[in-house]
Amino acid sequence: MRALIQRVNHASVQVKGKCIGEIETGVLLLLGIAKGDNNDSSTKLAEKVLNYRIFPDEQGRMNRSLVDIKGALLVVSQFTLCADTQKGLRPSFSSAAPPDLAQKLYLHFVDQCANTLNKVETGEFGADMKVSLLNDGPVTFLLES
Which residues are designated catalytic? Predict the structure, then answer.
């Protein structure tokens, strides 16, 4: 599992012109699920995301987590994070999990986060989504389980 996390002041996702998920201060997370991922890797990544210290403390150091600041989380499925880009000029998606498994693990990941955070919003799995954000920083990290 791979997650691209971005610290944001605001983020939203639209499907067919309708806003289906929106947060203020927190993290926009793009989630890629690969073949071989399972509930354990989903839980492990959720714990890492929730506790990863990317928010500033009183001295301005990245020393606080999403849990510490009681921030919000917007989770958007992004199978392209599993692309193999090492050969040629076109990405290969053969390492991405099949859609039925990926959706189950995506929902498991969201549930794990929702058990801890007060506000977890999502995109729509498999939909053509339009994502907007206002970066805070910018602060962006790639996490893997």
Answer: 78-80
pLDDT in tens, 104-129: 999 999 999 999 999 999 999 999 99
Entry pTM = 0.96
The CATH number fitting domain 2-135, selected from 3.50.80.10, 3.90.550.10, 2.102.10.10, 3.30.530.20: 3.50.80.10
> How, if at all, do strands 62-64 and 18-23 pair?
unpaired
Domain ranges for the chain: 2-135
DSSP state of 89: S
Measured in degrees and rounded to the nearest 5, phi and psi for residue 20 equal -110, -10
How far apart CA 124 and CA 129 sit, in angstroms, is 7
Question: What element of type H or E holds 62?
Answer: strand 62-64
Query: Cα(79)–Cα(134) distance, rounded to whole angstroms?
Result: 22
